[in-house]
Design goal:
The chain has about 230 residues and is an alpha/beta fold. It is built from twelve helices and six strands. It folds into two domains: about 150 residues, HAD superfamily/HAD-like (Rossmann fold, 3-Layer(aba) Sandwich); about 60 residues, DNA polymerase, domain 1 (Orthogonal Bundle), CATH 1.10.150. Strands 3-2-1-4-5-6 form a six-stranded parallel sheet, sandwiched between helices. Strand 5, helix 11 and strand 6 form a beta-alpha-beta unit.
């Protein structure tokens, strides 16, 4: 005998996504502070001395190539080889110790239990994610062929290409996917892809995320409830 689902169970099932796409930096691994301090020091060395808060406001969520172009416009004397030199250096720094975001393993375990697919979609390069995710066996076990980078598509965030590519490879429609982001750039990309977005803002009110249509939350431990898991 098949027992019919209760009304609350049906509502929960309909709210639950088929796919969750996580940004990497600042959502899965706590790498933003390390990376942006490194960027601040690099730019200062090349003539653009900005406070860390401004660095994060200007550049979080973008690509390093885009950062270099903007920094040059603002007066940084960056050599043409700077982007390619930057990546190995910052990866070495991140490899010295990059913690996971508190509560992320609980979220992934809840997704596993609910049999909901998930992946990473990041504007960072694969080498950088290998340096950060690779420090944590719990993440390595869960993120293998389901890691997508801006270098996999024609246009990085805020274009929708990366999220649409991730959904296609994972075998799900954009409408059934949810994105977890911490930057306005990523939230804008999610909106352009037609995907619901939850904006992780642990240290502020998330106003810039809200402006791009994200539903803001402040504690990763709240995410399973928000995803109706």
């Amino acid at each position: 005998m098949v027992t019919p689902m209760s009304h609350s169970s049906l509502v929960k099932a309909r709210m639950r996504p088929d796919l969750v796409i996580f940004d990497c930096d600042g959502v899965v691994v706590d790498s933003e502070g390390i990376t942006n301090q490194y960027i601040r020091d690099e730019l200062a060395e090349h003539g653009l001395d900005l406070p860390l808060g401004q660095i994060m406001s200007l550049f979080v969520g973008g690509t390093i190539a885009g950062l270099a172009d903007r920094a040059r416009e603002m007066g940084a004397a960056l050599p043409e080889t700077w982007v390619e030199e930057f990546y190995p250096s910052v990866c070495d720094r991140l490899a010295q110790g990059t913690p996971m975001i508190e509560g992320i393993i609980d979220v992934l375990e809840a997704l596993d239990t609910a049999q909901v697919s998930y992946c990473i979609g990041s504007n960072g390069r694969h080498a950088k994610m290998a340096a950060t995710l690779g420090q944590h066996p719990e993440l390595v076990a869960r993120f293998t062929r389901n890691v997508f980078a801006a270098q996999d598509v024609a246009a990085p965030k805020p274009a929708p290409d990366l999220f649409l590519h991730a959904a296609c490879v994972m075998g799900h429609s954009p409408a059934s996917a949810v994105v977890i982001e911490d930057s306005p750039t990523g939230a804008k990309a999610a909106r352009a892809a037609g995907m619901r977005c939850f904006g992780y803002a642990p240290e502020d009110d998330g106003a810039r995320l809200k402006a791009q249509g994200a539903e803001v939350f402040h504690d990763m431990r709240d995410l399973p409830r928000l995803l109706a898991l």
